[in-house]
Amino acid sequence: xxxxxxxxxxxxxxxxxxxxxxxxxxxxxxxxxxxxxxxxxxxxxxxxxxxxxxxxxxxxxxxxxxxxxxxxxxxxxxxxxxxxxxxxxxxxxxxxxxxxxxxxxxxxxxxxxxxxxxxxxxxxxxxxxxxxxxxxxxxxxxxxxxxxxxxxxxxxxxxxxxxxxxxxxxxxxxxxxxxxxxxxxxxxxxxxxxxxxxxxxxxxxxxxxxxxxxxxxxxxxxxxxxxxxxxxxxxxxxxxxxxxxxxxxxxxxxxxxxxxxxxxxxxxxxxxxxxxxxxxxxxxxxxxxxxxxxxxxxxxxxxxxxxxxxxxxxxxxxxxxxxxxxxxxxxxxxxxxxxxxxxxxxxxxxxxxxxxxxxxxxxxxxxxxxxxxxxxxxxxxxx
Length: 383
Ligand SMILES: Cc1cc2nc3c(=O)[nH]c(=O)nc-3n(C[C@H](O)[C@H](O)[C@H](O)COP(=O)(O)OP(=O)(O)OC[C@H]3O[C@@H](n4cnc5c(N)ncnc54)[C@H](O)[C@@H]3O)c2cc1C
Description:
Layout: H1 2-13, H2 18-33, H3 48-61, H4 66-80, H5 87-104, H6 112-135, E1 142-153, E2 156-163, E3 174-178, E4 187-190, E5 200-206, H7 214-220, E6 226-233, E7 245-251, H8 256-265, E8 274-280, H9 289-297, E9 302-308, E10 332-333, H10 336-341, E11 349-354, H11 357-369, E12 377-378
Helix pairs in contact: 1-6, 2-3, 2-5, 4-6, 5-6
Bound molecules: flavin-adenine dinucleotide.
C-alpha cells in the first residue's frame, strides 16, 4: 500500500501545477459542500495550500517510520483545535481530500485499488488527528501577553511573553502563534527558551520580505499585545538513550529550538557532547552568539562554532563583529552545510538541522554527500 500511495502522490508532486491543483481542489470541494467551514480559514488561502501539501508530503515521505508519522498527526490534531475543528470537519475533509487527490492525478488510469489505498490512508490520518484532539485534556490555545520586544537587528526581533498559564512544551518544540495585527493567520514559531513554571516564553522572529505575518511581528508588536499560542508541536530532542553525541546545525532564527535544548541541558548534571554550528549570511546574523558562548563557557560538553557566509558585516550594520572569548572556536566561513561536511562524516552522531526550508535542504544534502546517513538527521517539517 505504501508504494502505491507514494507512486500516485509523486505523480502529483512532480507535476508543475500538481500541488496547487490538489489543495485548490481540496478547499473548493470542502467549501462547496460546507460553506459554513470557510470562516475557520484565513481570508487568503494561497499560503495555507502549500502548508497542507507539505504536511501531506511529510506524512507520505515518512510512512515507513510509524512512530514519527503517528506522533506528527497526533500533534497536528491537537493543534487543529485552535481552529475550532471537530468530528464533523474531519469526516467532511476525508471526502474532499480523496476527491482532490483523484482530481489531481494525471499520470495513468485511476484504479479502484488506488481508491481503496487512499481511502484507508486518509481515514487513518484523520482518525489519528481526531482521536488525539478528543483525548487531549490541555487547552486548545493559551493567551499570552508581550512583556518585551527587542529589535535585535533591523529585520529580527526577540519577543518575550508571559502566558496566562504555563505551556508544557518540550525544549526544541514549536507552537502555532496568532498575533492581534493578523487575526486567523497562524504561523509557527520555535520557543527559544525551555518551558518554565512562570509561563515565560521567548520567540526569535525574522521578518520575511513580502510575508503577511512576520513583518507585523517584527515591526508592529507592542508591549501589552495579546498573542494566542496553540499546542506544542515537533519532535526535535536529544535522545539520551542512544549513546550518541550530538551535532546541531542552526541558521538565523533556526537556532531558537537548539538554544532552548542546550539551555535545558545546562540544567542537568550529565549530558552527551554537543557540537553546535551557528550560521548566518553575515556575522551580524549570528545575533545571539554571545549567549551561546556564555553557556558553553560554563558547560564543557558544549562546543559552539560560528559560521558565516561573508566575513564582513554589510555597510549599514555598524556595530563591531563580536570576538569569541579566549579558547573558543573562531568563526568559519561558508554555508553551514558545506562547512560542517568538510569535517567528514558525522555518522557517529545524532543530528539536528534547523533553519529556513532551503537551508535545511542544502545542509541535509551536504551531510549526506559527506557520508552521514540520512536516518541520523532530524529536522522540523518544511511546512
Ligand atoms: C516548524 C517551523 C518553525 C518555525 N520557527 C520560526 C521561528 O522560530 N522564527 C521565525 O522567524 N520563523 C519561524 N518559522 C517560519 C514562520 O512560521 C513563517 O513561515 C515566517 O515567519 C513567514 O511568515 P509570513 O507570514 O511573514 O510569510 P508568508 O506570507 O507565509 O510567506 C511569504 C513568502 O515567504 C516565504 N517564506 C516563508 N517562510 C520563509 C522563511 N523562513 N525563509 C524564507 N522565505 C520564507 C514563503 O514561501 C512565501 O513565498 C518556522 C516555520 C516552521 C515550519
